[in-house]
Structures are given as C-alpha cells and as structure tokens.
C-alpha cells in the first residue's frame, strides 16, 4: 500500500517539477503537460517496481518523501513562465 500511495504522490510531485522546468525553458504549457504526463507514467511504474524490489522500506520512504517535498515545495518558489 505504501508503494502505491507514496508512489502516486511522488510521481505527481515529479510532474509538478517537470512542468515547471519545461515551461521555464520555453515549452508551451499544453505540450509541457502532455509530455509530463507521459513521462510521469513511466516514473510511477519504476517507483512502484523499485519499492516492491527494495529489501527494506527505509530507502523508498526517504526517496518518495524527498520527491514529494521537492515537487510540492519548489514550484511555490519558482516563477512560472508566461
């Protein structure tokens, strides 16, 4: 359950980070969201597989927590383009 819930929040945080990065580099918002959603699906699958393959729960929890904090915290400090 931890892998699914925290993986979902970590991947959505990755989507937020990726969209801020792509928009700040000049990509239109619609294309940024489309590309971000496609890449986030792959990241979500990789996070879940990694969480189930990990020997201990510690590292996935730490990595997921860092992704969540960075993904939801950084966009508040970075100005969106356009």
Radius of gyration: 13 Å
Shape assignment = elongated
Structural class estimated from helices and strands: mainly alpha
Q: Give a short account of the largest sheet.
A: none
Q: What fraction, in percent, of the residue positions are helical?
A: over 70%
The share of residues in extended strands comes to under 5%
Q: How many distinct domains?
A: 1
Mean pLDDT: 86
N- and C-termini, Cα separation: 39 Å
| Poorly predicted spans | none
Secondary-structure element string: HHH
**Number of strand elements:** 0
Helix count from the secondary structure assignment: 3
Structure, explained:
- Keywords: Membrane, Transmembrane, Transmembrane helix.
- This is DUF3649 domain-containing protein.
- The chain crosses the membrane at residues 6-26, 33-53, 59-78.
- The chain is mainly α and 82 residues long.
- It has one domain (6-77).
- Helices cover 83% and strands 0% of the residues.
- The protein has three helices and no strands.
- The protein has helices spanning 2-24, 29-53, 58-77.
- Helix 1 (2-24) packs antiparallel against helix 2.
- The longest helix is centred in the middle third of the chain and has 25 residues, at 29-53.
- The model has no long low-confidence stretch (mean pLDDT 86).
